[in-house]
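User: ok so my PI wants both of these folded by tonight, can you help

Assistant: No problem, let's get them done. Here's the first:
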Amino acid sequence: LTGHLAIHRDENVLRAFVKLLSGRITQLSYLGSAISNFGLFVLIPNLAAFTQGNLHYPRERLGLLYLMGGLAGFFTIRPFGRLVDYYGSFRVAWVGTMITVAVVLVGFTWALPWVPVEATFVSFMVANGLRNVSVQTLTTKVPLQEERARYMSIQSMTQHLFSALGAFTSAQM
């Protein structure tokens, strides 16, 4: 994919970024990524402490919990991609978000004693994998071919910035 290089070779870089940022769909895409990453990283830094302190999960088994969550995420990513291809990224993102909300409510907010910690943790990791695959797919539809690199650089910056802000906010709580 190099055809776009010749099209805008003489374009002012700053003007190109401003033009990209002025698009309504682009702004909504960045906002969605910001909210998604912020919300995720408000929770993630506190998962280990919450799981041990509030759900009474033994510290020596915490690594196993992360291993189970990571393996479940690893094995569900490809099928999630197929779901996105079949049903569309917006629908799957919505379902992933609703599952994430349900898991956070049942497993962490209400911390229902009859729900196993392992099920809560693995479900959280898997639901976020579903949400992330679909949101990333959705955002790739936003830029034009000749805007893709600058769009993705701002997208990456947005994700990192709001992940950091979420983690910072988490530490303040």
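One down. Here's the second:
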Amino acid sequence: MGFAASWIAVRGLVREDLILRCGLQPAAEGVTMEEARYAIGRRKDDCWVIVAFRDYEFAEPQRLQPLSEAGEAVGVQVEEHVMVSAIYAYDHGRPVWCVFHNGGDEGADHL
């Protein structure tokens, strides 16, 4: 049994702005990761804010594009059940690059 997850890292926003723009509610005190819908953190240098979600669709390009208007945004999607993964990068609202891999159809050494 696999898992589905996605992450978004944004440079140019603070934690509270990322939560608001993603339409998330702040987690209550004492909520464990198993209970939470998402986890959010930042790098020690404050350059990137990162939100992880237990859902493949969360880091879709349609969400990244507006988040990147203030700077850079990178989204990662992993769906182990069907062996699909994708990474998208946006900068100031424009797509910069992406990588998509379908291991089920293309094989493990496709990349």
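Helices lie at 15-21, 61-67, 103-106. DSSP finds three helices and six strands in the chain. Good luck tonight!
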